[in-house]
Structure formats: C-alpha cells, structure tokens
Fold this sequence. Notes:
The complex is a heterodimer of chains A (255) and B (389).
Chain A: E1 3-15, E2 18-31, E3 35-39, H1 46-54, E4 59-68, E5 71-72, H2 78-83, E6 86-89, E7 96-100, H3 101-113, H4 119-132, E8 143-144, H5 150-164, E9 168-172, H6 180-197, E10 200-205, E11 218-223, E12 226-231, H7 233-242, H8 245-254
Parallel strand pairs in A: 3-10, 3-11, 6-9, 9-10
Antiparallel strand pairs in A: 1-2, 1-4, 4-5, 7-8, 11-12
Helix pairs in contact in A: 5-6
Chain B: E1 2-3, E2 10-14, H1 59-63, E3 73-75, E4 81-87, H2 102-110, E5 113-119, E6 126-131, E7 139-147, E8 152-161, E9 164-173, E10 178-187, E11 192-201, E12 206-215, E13 218-227, E14 233-242, E15 247-256, E16 262-271, E17 277-286, E18 294-303, E19 309-318, E20 325-334, H3 337-344, H4 350-366, H5 372-387
Parallel strand pairs in B: 5-7, 6-8, 7-9, 8-10, 9-11, 10-12, 11-13, 12-14, 13-15, 14-16, 15-17, 16-18, 17-19, 18-20
Antiparallel strand pairs in B: 1-19, 2-20, 3-6, 4-5
Helix pairs in contact in B: 3-4, 4-5
The complex binds adenosine-5'-triphosphate and magnesium ion.
GO molecular function (chain A): ATP binding; ATP hydrolysis activity
Family (chain A): Belongs to the ABC transporter superfamily. Ycf16 family.
Organism (chain A): Agromyces bracchium
Amino acid sequence: MSVLEIKNLHVNVETDQGTREILRGVDLTIREGEIHAIMGPNGSGKSTLAYTIAGHPKYTVVEGEILLDGENVLEMSVDERARAGMFLAMQYPVEIPGVTVTNFLRTAKTAIDGEAPSIRTWLKDVRGAMTNLKMDSAFAERNVNEGFSGGEKKRNEILQLELLKPKFAVLDETDSGLDVDALKVVSEGVNRAHANTGLGILLITHYTRILRYIKPDFVHVFVAGKIAEQGGPELADRLEEEGYDRYHVAESATQ
Amino acid sequence: MQSTALPTPEQHGIRAHSDGPIVPVQTRSERFRSTDVADFAPITGREHEWKYSPVAAFADLTSGELDGSRVEVEATDATGVSLSWIPRDDARVGRAGTPEERASANAWSSFGEALLVEVAGEEAKTVTVTRSGLGTAPRAAHTVIEAAPFSQALVVLRGIGDARLTENVEVVVGEGANLTVVSLQEWTDESVHLASHFARIGRDAKLKHIVVSLGGKVVRVNPSTHLAEQGADVEALGLYFSDAGQHLEQQVFVHHDAPHTRSRVTYKGALQGEGARSVWIGDVLIGNTATGTDSYEQNRNLVLTDGTRADSVPNLEIETGDIEGAGHASATGRFDDEQLFYLQARGIPEDEARRLVVRGFLAEVVQQIGDAELEERLIRALEAELQGS
Ligand SMILES: Nc1ncnc2c1ncn2[C@@H]1O[C@H](COP(=O)(O)OP(=O)(O)OP(=O)(O)O)[C@@H](O)[C@H]1O
Ligand SMILES: [Mg+2]
C-alpha cells in the first residue's frame, strides 16, 4: 500500500522584494487510491504546494518532510521523483518547440520504466488513450503544447497521466479553462487512471464544478499557506454556498 | 539586434502594396566591389561588414600575403561529377560574383588555380569534397561549382583539420538545374576560416545552400545569391553551434533580380559557454525588375548558458511594389528552465532533456538537407557538441 506523506511543510520563494514565506506548515497524508481535493482562494499557495512536491527549483523547503513510502522525496531530483511514481499535471503546461508529442511520450515512458516500451503495444496504448480523450491523432506529430488551446493542453496532461501510470498525481487546476464537454472528457481520464492503477490523487481546484465528475474522499480548505479545515465531500458543498470568506477572517487574524 | 537574455521576438511581414516607407540600412546593390585587394582600404573593424568580427584575430588573412597553391582535396566518386584544377584566368572563373570586402578580395588576388567541380546528368547523386591538412599558415583558395542545365546533385564541401583560410566559392546553377551545396566546417579549435560564396541561379533553377559551422575558432561564411533569371529559387539554410570562445558568423545576401523568384532563408544556432558568439546578418534586396518576388528570411538562436552573445540583423530592401510577399523574423531566446522542469517532471533526466530540446530546435534545419546519411552524421556531431559542455 503506497502512501505519500507531507509533514509540517514550510516553503519559501525568493522574490525581488526578498524571501517570502508561502507554505506555513502543511500536513497531509494520501494513501493509494484516495482522492483528496484541495480548495482555496487565489494566491493561497496551492500551486506552490504542487510545485514543491514535484521539486521545482524556485521553491525552497525550509522545514518539514515529504515522504513517498517512507523515502525522502526532498532529496530526489525532479526526474527521480517522477521515476519514483510522482506526477504533476500543471496549471500552465509548457511548450516544447521541436519536440513532437510522440517523441516526448516515448522518451518519458522509457525513462520512467527504465526500458523502451514494446513498439506495437505502445502505439496501440497511445492511440487508445488519445481516442479516449477525444484528441485528434494529428496531435501526435505536433510539438508538445505548441499552439495547443488551453483545453488541449489539459488533455495532453491527462494523456501523460494515463500513459505514464504514476502512483500519485497532483492535478493543479486541471479543470480551469475547460468547457463542460472538455471537463467531462478530462474527468473521465482521471477516473480511468484512478480505477486502473489505484492512483492516489491530490486534486487542486478553485471551483466545486469538477467535483461533480471526480468524487473526492477528502476535502481540504487551503488558506494562507496551510490547511485551514478538512472534511468529507460535504465540505465542498458548504464552500460552494459560503465561499472562502469565513477563512479570510481567520487568515488576517493570524498575520 | 543584440540579445543575451530573454526572448526578443521581432516579426515583420511586408506584403505588396503595404504602406509605410521601407528604409534600408544601406543600399546593398551599391556596395563597392573588386577582385583586387589593393582597391580596399585597410580594415579598422568599424566597417559595417566587419564590425561584428574579431578582425585582429585574422589580420594576416585580410592584409597579409597568402599561400595560393592547391589545397589537398579528397572527393568521393559520383557518376556525373568531375573535379579538376583550372588556371585563374580561365573563363569559368568570375561568373557568379565579385568580392565586396577585403578578405574575399585578398583570396581572389592570391589564388593560383581554382578547383572546378562540374556536375552533369539528371539523376540524383552526392559528392563529398573534403579539404584537410591546410596547415596553420595563411592560405587562399578558389572553388567553382558548376551545375549544367537540368542536372541534379548534392555537393558537400567539407573542411577538417587545421586551417587559416580565406576563400571564394562560386556556384553557377544552370537553367532548370537542382543543386544542393553544403559547406561543412569541422575545423580544429584554433582554425580560422573566412569564406565568401557567390551563387548565380539561372532560369527555373533551384539552389539549396546550407552552411553548417561546428568547429573553428573564427568561422565566417557569407553566402550571396543572385537570383538572376526568371523562376530562380534559393533555399538558404544554416546551422551553427558556438562553444566557449568560438565566433561563428554568417552574412547572407539574397538579390532578387528577375521576375517570379523565390527565396527562403533559415538560420538556426545554439550558443553554449563563456564567450560563445554568433553573428547573422540577412540582407534581402528585391530589385525593381523582380516583380512577383516571394521572400522570407529568419534567424533563431538558442542561448544555453550565460556569457554568450548572439547578434542577429535582418535587412530588407525593396525597389518594387509589385511583389508577392516578403518578410523576416529574428529571435534569440534563452534555454528555458521551465521546459527543462516540464521534461524532468516526466522522468527524463536533465542531460537528456537538454539534448531533446536543443536537438528539436536544430533538427528543423538538418531535416532539410535531403541526404539521410549526412543528416544522421550531423545529428551525431550536434550530440557531441552538446556533450562537450
Ligand atoms: N515564483 C514566485 N515568485 C514570487 N512569488 C511567488 C512565486 N510563486 C508563488 N508566489 C506567490 O506565492 C503566493 C501563492 O502562489 P500560488 O501560485 O501557490 O497560489 P495558488 O493558490 O496556486 O493561486 P491560484 O489559485 O491563483 O492558482 C502568491 O502570492 C504568489 O504571488
Ligand atoms: Mg495555482
């Protein structure tokens, strides 16, 4: 049974105005197969948490730990984390000119598995996954994310999630910028990965809309760099009605 | 435009009948020309054609005495391609162009015999002409590549070993011919190579001209193409990888001088290491007889480390309003750490991620060479450049 543990995580970022503390003691445990939703206002540090888990060099961990099955994730490089089974679907996926989706997927798959996938089954897997996500096969020969619309970029993230089969995935606002149809397609992809591989999911979102399609086991309210409240799916419904105002008061009180 | 940091894209599209004046930096057609070095003033380094170059590093080539004897040449066999040496007063010398600067004129004044590469026959063929063992003393050379009407070939002019060379290469493309010329610079680290290529393209003929500069301390290859007759077409491609302390330069000139001519100029380069430099100047002149011209030029640089400098200067001069299209683009961008993060976040190790991005960037040019073996070899050479950081 795989488990991802985040303990008392404090994270700083260097800005032009000096060092800024963004995460202020995050505690979170995700077990295999669990779906955790993190909801919070703009600027509360949700993406910072996602990037820190993935190992983005801009963020400095000043205190706390991240453990994957007891292994110290913070000591791993970005690519080592991915090979250990971590995945980040980015809020703003990056364009890679000159590198086709096909080439990129094959290179990533080979790196993650430690060996090249067998050509025949791999091509079938890629084609199948693209069809499921309603991606035109022409995308395979396009450069990664280059000229993709917002929705196409998000599908491309989920395509990678389905093909690379990580143990834990952080989905950073995968729902933002999607119309209803795209939201359904992308949610189905996430649910497939969840059902097929027992994926543990940290679903970062701003809105409750995606929670109609992806059912969380736990909901965490993220405010001012830490978890302000947690509960079951019913907490999301309450946020839908009341918004984050309640927490803002608490936030200013602590500052 | 000079850029060392953030992406600085600059795009201009000029179409026929576009309003707004086009003010050329200088009128290229009026530049002084002579085959005699004595007609050129000594170089100060402030001249427009020298201001980006480390002129002190090769004063011997621009004003000193040069060894103009035959250079050692080795060529692969190809049916329909023949090599010979012809005297400097042969009528086949001097048909494609005339020097516009001192290094070129000094070479012209000094060479003894010219190497003539004759291409005939309509079937496709490849010939590789390798020059090696040029030594460390200053030399001059002259080459004439002539494609007979309706002939087809790929000619690779390759330089390896030591060189201190200034040279002229004339390319004469006969009516309806389809010629590819690759100038491949793989000199040793201390070498200096200054070259002017002059191409004259005949009616409905096509030249693909490719400059690949990898090795050498200073390498400056300046191709001028004269689209002299109706329907002439040039695809001018360039690829360079500048390492620490290396200066790689190319001044590309395309002269549209007849109706319905077409040009595409695409130069791409990567820079890596302290003092790595590249210069690209792209002049396009659309003369008043060149109605229906279709022209586009672009230069893209990928900056991999700090301490590099890429100069990129496009110039477009248009003397007729009746054209199909003309435009240029120039951009110098830093290797993007976010790209690196994205690839690594998918499990790809850092060095492989870097290679993937750079290879992708440069592959666009490599893939257009049209010779699988050469493409493969260049990809490997580029990999080696990337490893050697
Ligand atoms: N690299 C950075 N440089 C400077 N400030 C940063 C950086 N990254 C994050 N921040 C700041 O940290 C705070 C948290 O940002 P973060 O992107 O994590 O928020 P978020 O909860 O994901 O917001 P959103 O809902 O808008 O995506 C913000 O105030 C942001 O400006
Ligand atoms: Mg965010």
